[in-house]
Design a protein that fits this description.
This protein is mainly alpha-helical and about 260 residues long. Helix content is about 70%, strand content about 0%. The chain has 16 helices and no strands. Helix 11 runs antiparallel to helix 12. The radius of gyration is 23 Å and the shape is elongated. The N and C termini lie far apart (about 70 Å).
């Protein structure tokens, strides 16, 4: 297949790259990078192999080694490979591209879709900068939210909570704050619930905080009835919208009936 990629006519080269996208293993990534810049199907094959490989660090090194010699367009096309692979080396390389006006947008997108939890502090830092536009901030906060909720990020629950709270502090707009409130709700832990209780007193946050608190209470369920009840009572007595308050009261009533 590699012989056809190197020496074959266009139709065989494309067919071979398609086959390599399905068949190549981690040992073939470095070989594939030799053809970067010769055909856009090479990067498509690389992306497919990067998604499958369990040798992420080795693969990232191969991608990083070939990037400096590529055009701006090809560098941008390679960034999704790094976001799939994750790791500190790739993260530093992509973070450094934020200062490059030609690559800033694809670099932001790559960071927002990063697979490893090591990117979370970088996302928070960038999202909190005044120089970053509102559209980019929303992209970064959504990427942070996705990362904190991912089961494959490598982050421990305590780290997820700490980073979600840091994200809340960095968020200025209501839309971005609500993204982070949703993360806290989906964490579903006692600690997240307790943090949300304090936010119920903030008129600007009460709706998102109350909805997130309901999600925590649902998650705790019978595992921690005391904390769930405390959260539901706080929501029921808050200034949240009526439908959320009614949901909290209904959950309290159902819980009371089960205990009879």
């Amino acid at each position: 297949l590699f012989n056809y990629v190197e020496n074959g006519p266009k139709h065989l080269r494309r067919a071979s790259l398609g086959a390599l996208a399905n068949l190549a293993g981690p040992q073939d990534i470095a070989r594939l990078t030799e053809f970067v810049g010769t055909d856009d199907h090479v990067i498509k094959a690389l992306v497919a192999v990067c998604r499958r490989t369990d040798q992420k660090s080795q693969a990232a090194k191969a991608i990083l080694a070939v990037m400096p010699s590529q055009s701006v367009e090809t560098k941008a096309e390679l960034l999704p490979c790094l976001s799939i692979l994750g790791g500190m080396d790739g993260l530093k390389a992509v973070r450094d591209l934020i200062g490059n006006k030609d690559l800033q947008e694809p670099a932001m997108k790559a960071l927002a879709s990063w697979s490893g939890g090591e990117a979370a502090p970088v996302l928070i830092d960038l999202a909190g900068k005044k120089a970053v536009g509102d559209t980019e901030k929303t992209l970064l906060f959504r990427g942070l939210g996705r990362l904190l909720e991912s089961r494959t990020s490598g982050l421990e629950p305590a780290q997820q909570l700490s980073l979600a709270l840091a994200g809340m502090n960095a968020a200025k707009g209501a839309q971005d704050k609500n993204v982070m409130l949703g993360v806290l709700g989906n964490l579903g832990t006692k600690e997240a619930g307790e943090r949300l209780l304090g936010m119920l007193e903030d008129d600007a946050l009460v709706e998102g905080a109350a909805q997130a608190a309901l999600n925590v209470a649902r998650s705790l369920g019978r595992r921690d009835r005391e904390t769930a009840g405390k959260i539901l009572n706080a929501v029921a007595n808050s200034k949240a919208p009526t439908d959320i308050i009614d949901s909290a009261k209904d959950m309290l009533e159902r819980g009371s009936r089960r205990r009879r």
